[in-house]
């Protein structure tokens, strides 16, 4: 696999991970609303999280450096919040963070390659 394909693959994985995280959060919010029960930190206000993740996923799909930076920072701050409040960190969230960081490096590499003259 050449570098361009690996870069594209990492970017695709990053926006797909954000989209999947958004879908999972939305599903948990819907279940929370329908049952009237809160699942840990999931409540109807997490719709805001869904909107943020979906917007950032689209930005990453469009190869936006700002969106990938915001997503990585948002995820790190979210993990910090989870750890400081004694909530168990999900391995899935760590895997998503890995994909986000790989996407961060790849988007910057993509823009560096793109800016070079032919």
In brief:
It is built from four helices and no strands.
Attribute tags:
single chain; 118 residues; mainly alpha; 4 helices; 79% helix
Number of helical segments with 4 or more residues: 4
Work out the count of structural domains. Answer: 1
Structural class: mainly alpha
H/E element sequence: HHHH
Oligomer: single chain
- Helical coverage, percent range: over 70%
Gyration radius (Cα, Å) is 16 Å
Q: What is the overall silhouette?
A: elongated
| Beta strand count | 0
Largest sheet: none
Structure explained in plain terms:
The chain has about 120 residues and is mostly helical. It has one domain (about 5-115). Helix content is about 80%, strand content about 0%. It is built from four helices and no strands. It has helices spanning about 5-35, 45-60, 65-85, 90-115. The longest helix has about 35 residues, at about 5-35. About 20% of the residues are buried.
Which helices and strands appear, and what pairs or packs with what?
Blueprint: H1 3-35, H2 47-61, H3 65-84, H4 91-115
């Amino acid at each position: 696999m050449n570098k361009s394909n690996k870069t594209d693959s990492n970017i695709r994985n990053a926006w797909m991970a954000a989209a999947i995280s958004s879908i999972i959060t939305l599903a948990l919010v819907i279940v929370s609303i329908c049952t009237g029960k809160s699942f840990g930190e999931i409540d109807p206000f997490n719709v805001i999280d869904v909107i943020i993740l979906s917007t950032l996923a689209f930005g990453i799909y469009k190869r936006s450096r700002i969106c990938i930076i915001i997503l990585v920072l948002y995820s790190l701050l979210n993990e910090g919040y989870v750890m400081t409040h004694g909530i168990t960190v999900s391995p899935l969230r760590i895997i998503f963070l890995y994909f986000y960081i790989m996407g961060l490096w790849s988007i910057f590499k993509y823009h560096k390659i793109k800016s070079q003259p032919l």
